[in-house]
Write a structure and sequence with these properties.
By secondary structure, this protein is an alpha/beta fold. The chain has two domains: 254 residues, 3-Layer(aba) Sandwich (Rossmann fold); 151 residues. The protein has 13 helices and 18 strands. It has a five-stranded parallel sheet, covered by helices on one side. Strands 8, 9, 12, 13 and 14 form a five-stranded antiparallel sheet that branches. It has a four-stranded antiparallel sheet with strand order 10-11-17-18, with no helix packed on it. Helix 2 packs across helix 4 and helix 4 crosses helix 9. The longest helix is centred in the first third of the chain and has 21 residues. The protein is globular, with a radius of gyration of 22 Å. The chain binds S-adenosylmethionine. S-adenosylmethionine binds next to strand 2 and strand 4.
């Protein structure tokens, strides 16, 4: 679960200042040691390109590939991408700076680098993007793809472009890609990686800009976006999608074509511990039937696609905080052990056609327990952040657009 690992890494951004300095020192030492390896530039680039092509060949293959084979290929891709990052020679500040913007967390390149190992997220996206490109190029000689908040490695597109170039599937005349990221460290790394992969011809633009404000100067055929964390919190997926969807061609597609965020009441021990004891890795295919049956599904809290984004209404509260009204759910009445359950939110991502990232396939879809929600039970000390309701109540969800985006439930 690489994004889960990222979530853990995120907490490092708030470490004790002295420890933080040591940490930065060790990161630089690791990167510098990579630079000392004995291969020539050409050899390093060839190995990097091969690792990107190999990972995509497995992901796009029609036959089932073993988990450990995929993990190994993605680990190799990661190692080569990090070597390219080392060549970019980012300062400590650029490598580790992480902050909260008006619309969400801006993760440091150091923490973002792990997302290229998030195998099943990249698989779901790459297979979806591949079909979308194929579909678009049936009707147009060339298309423009925008990938905002792409991070230092743009892992949802650069591996795919490497594969297309190697296999001569699509030329740079057919595909033009715009890469946008607000973090200067991510942009410097991206430029180095694109150069090392020799993909410059496919890249129309690499821009350092806030994706919630960026205005492309040409209409977009495909918008590829993944700026999510589990429980649909922290990162600015919704704000970015809501802004950029306006620049899609009338028949342009968003990838993911649909994100469904759902709520459930679970027995924490069953959902998060027992069902994973007998399996090697967490994945939607490995979920236990009895754990699934034990859940109390509450239904969809929000649904995000091109059409819902274009129709989304934003409310501004008195203190300037913006919220988006999401769905209402009715808490079921007949659950005897409701007071022992915790509320959790998970996502199901349909990238394109039948391709998807299911719950537990990645940190972005992983269920997130929300311990501030109390149903049929009252917390000992009620704080203003607690939400207390009873079975049978109707709950309206709002999505808060702020530096810490997330859901706010309100009793109707
Ligand atoms: C988790 S990383 C990379 C995510 C990437 N899509 C992937 O698939 O791995 C998140 C990146 O999004 C960028 N980002 C977050 N919010 C942004 C925004 N509003 N505008 C531009 N970049 C943003 C951060 O700077 C960071 O480099």
């Amino acid at each position: 679960m690489e994004k889960s690992q990222v979530l853990n890494d995120v907490s490092l951004g708030y470490a004790d200042p002295q420890i933080d300095e040591l940490l930065k020192h060790s990161i630089r030492t690791q990167l510098e040691s990579l630079l000392k390896s004995q291969v020539t530039v050409e050899q390093r680039q060839k190995l990097l390109q091969k690792s990107f092509v190999d990972a995509m060949a497995l992901v796009l293959s029609g036959s089932k590939v073993e988990h450990k084979v995929l993990i190994k290929a993605f680990e190799t891709m990661y190692e080569h991408a990090v070597q390219s990052m080392a060549q970019a020679k980012l300062s400590q500040e650029l490598l580790t700076r992480q902050y909260i913007s008006a619309t969400g967390l801006i993760m440091s390149p150091h923490n973002c680098k792990h997302t290229i190992k998030d195998v099943y997220r990249i698989k779901g996206y790459a297979r979806g993007v591949d079909q979308a490109i194929q579909g678009k190029l049936k009707h147009k000689p060339s298309i423009t793809i925008l990938y905002p908040a792409c991070g230092p490695f743009a892992p949802l597109l650069l591996p795919l472009l490497s594969y297309y170039k190697d296999m001569q599937t699509y030329s740079a005349k057919q595909l033009q890609v715009m890469l946008v990221d607000v973090h200067p460290g991510a942009v410097i790394t991206l430029r180095q990686l694109v150069k090392d992969l020799q993909l410059e011809d496919y890249i129309a633009l690499i821009e350092e800009a806030d994706a919630t404000e960026f205005k492309p100067d040409t209409a977009i055929d495909l918008l590829v976006l993944e700026a999510m964390q589990h429980g649909f919190t922290k990162e600015g997926q919704l704000s970015i999608a809501k802004h950029l969807v306006k620049f899609l061609n009338i028949d342009g597609w968003m990838i993911p074509q649909n994100v469904s965020v759902r709520g459930m009441m679970v027995i924490g021990e069953t959902e998060f511990n027992q069902q994973w004891k007998q399996v090697d890795y967490s994945h939607s295919n490995n979920m236990a039937k009895d754990a699934l049956q034990d859940r109390v599904e509450l239904g969809e809290i929000i649904n995000i696609n091109k059409s819902t984004l274009l129709n989304m209404q934003e409310l501004e509260l008195q203190d300037g905080i913006k919220v988006i009204p999401a769905n209402q759910i009715v808490l079921p009445k007949d659950i005897t052990d409701m007071s022992q359950r915790i509320f959790a939110v998970y996502a199901h991502v349909e990238t394109f056609a039948q391709e998807e990232v299911g719950q537990y396939d990645s940190g972005i879809t992983h269920p997130r327990p929300d311990t501030s929600v109390y149903i049929d039970i009252k917390p000992k000390d009620i704080e203003h952040t607690h939400f207390v309701a009873n079975s049978g109540d109707t709950v309206q969800f709002y999505y808060q657009i702020s530096g810490l985006p997330g859901f706010v439930p309100v009793k109707v």
